[in-house]
Amino acid sequence: MKISIRTIYVTTFLILATVMFILIHFLGVHQISQSLISDRKAALYEEASALSGRYFFNVKSINEFDDYTEDALRERMTSLQVMSHARYFLVDTTGRISIDSADTQSLEGQNFNDLNPTFLDNDTYIGHLKSDSLPSEILSVIYPLSENSNLNGYLVIMTSLADLRSNAHLLVRKLDVCFVLFFLFLILIMVQLYCLTLHPIRQLSQTIREYCTGHFDRSMIHLPFQEYSKLIKSIEDLATFSQNANSYQKDFVANVSHDFRSPLTNIKGYIGAMLDGTIPHEIQEKYLKIILMETNRLTKLTEQLLELNKYENNGILLNYTAFDINEVIRNAASSFEKRCTEKKISIHLMFGSPSFFVDADRDKISQVVHNLIDNAVKFSSTDSSIEIQTAEQKGKIFVTVSDHGIGIPEESLPHIWDRFYKTDVSRGKDKTGSGLGLAITREIVEAHHEYIHATSILGSGTDFSFSLSPHSSGF
Question: What does the pLDDT read at residue 344?
Answer without folding.
Answer: 92
